[in-house]
Amino acid sequence: MAERRPVKPGELMGLAAAAGQEARAAAARRRMAQIRLTDEERRVATDELAEQFAIGRLDEGELHRRVDLLNDAVTHGDLQPIFAGLPAPSLYTPPARKPGKWRWAGFAAAAWLAVPFVLTGLVFMVFGREIAAAIFGLPALAWTFYAYRWASRPAREERRRSGS
Q1: Residues with Cβ within 8 Å of residue 60, at least 6 apart in sequence
Q2: pLDDT, tens digit (0-9, with 9 covering 90-100), for 88-109
Q3: In whole angstroms, what is the distance from residue 96 CA to residue 157 CA?
């Protein structure tokens, strides 16, 4: 009997996220089962079959058989036998979620936590204690700067991906 290794918490989170995404895709397939295919959706499905052929999951005869079925398909429900044994087409993959505003709430909390330390550093600065001011003020300012960088990272990555 094979020995089971324990599941790590990080793996468990990944499995839960994958199961949730798979469930959303299955729900999208059920919702769209009776909706007629558009020309664009048919083109996307054909491209997906061609990709499966290119990576070796389908031979040429199987590709032609499935493309013929695809050309005869009328609704999204007709796609299920076409993609049997293959990954679900991207038509049913939910769009990527935009990062939420919770990062900015975290930044605001980090900034509020830094305020007393910055004010204490300013008080020390006024009374001529530069070293004490640096000990209190500079780490708080660095903390705020790094919290801002963390909160704005999704927007920076999106700008980088879009090339602007």
Answers
A1: 53
A2: 777 766 666 666 678 889 999 9
A3: 14
Six-digit token string for 96: 């990527």
Q: Which residues face 97 on adjacent strands?
A: none
Place of tokens 């429900």: 77
Closest CA to 42 of 87, 85, 89, 88: 89
CA distances from 31 to 25, 34, 35 (A): 10, 8, 8
DSSP-derived secondary structure letter, 127: T
Contact 132, 122 (CB under 8 A): no
Q: Locate 87 and state its tokens.
A: 């990954």
Rg (CA), the chain: 27
CB of 58 closer than 8 Å to CB of 69: no
Residue count (the chain): 164
Count of alpha carbons within 13 angstroms of residue 91, beta-carbon side: 27
| CA max distance for the chain | 85
What pLDDT digit, counting tens, does each position of 38-70 carry? Answer: 888 889 889 989 998 999 999 999 999 999 998
